[in-house]
Amino acid sequence: MIDLDYLAFLENILTENRKERFLEVLDNRTKHFTVAVEDVYQMHNTSAVMRSCEVFGIQELNIIEQRFGKRIDKEIALGAQKWVDINRFESVSACLTGLKNRGYQIIATTPHEKDCMLEDFDITKPSALFFGTEKEGLSPEIMENADGFLKIPMVGFTESLNISVSAAIIIQDLTNRLRRSDIDWKLSAEEILEKRLHWAKNSIKDIKRIEARYYQENPRSLI
């Protein structure tokens, strides 16, 4: 349950333009689609995918770190890590199970004999879009558990794209189609409140001191 008094206290510190911008961005955020990247060794690629998620309105990014531990490259992400939720998994199976339990179908973005072209993809179902490396692609475990396969139409000699480029193309196409549809794709009222609180905290310097002051002045909020 969101402490609305605490939210109001924090947002009172922000400028009106900042608060209006939060609402504008949140109105275009979605969890109808989520993105997952598997063991991407090049840190800048994961960071670039996060940036694409933020730019095109995907609220959650799932990172599987089964082989390579990594941190977000802030220079590439350019602040996107403040606005996108990162779910980290130590194994493929944990990620697959978690997403399926939340109602997502697993979509492997890779050329496959049963694949679907991007423009023909059915956007009505909540989908988790999995991306692997350009060289190795997705692991057999993901391929075997995928509910569908999606690929970008290509007409040149090159058969693959860098993961960050592929993600940007697919996310931009699907989110644009989603916003033009009648699908209930937006965040819930509760999710919007949660993000307003999270983003307000991320926007305020010395938030720990300010938070401590609030709870000192409002001890009942701790109950």
UniProtKB/TrEMBL annotation:
Q: Which top-rank group of organisms is this from?
A: Bacteria
Please list the reactions this protein catalyses.
guanosine(18) in tRNA + S-adenosyl-L-methionine = 2'-O-methylguanosine(18) in tRNA + S-adenosyl-L-homocysteine + H(+)
What organism, scientifically named, is this protein from?
Flavobacterium hungaricum
GO MF terms here are:
methyltransferase activity
Q: What is its EC number?
A: 2.1.1.34
Which family does the similarity line name? Answer: Belongs to the class IV-like SAM-binding methyltransferase superfamily. RNA methyltransferase TrmH family.
Q: What is this protein called?
A: tRNA (guanosine(18)-2'-O)-methyltransferase
**Which leading EC class covers this enzyme?**
transferase
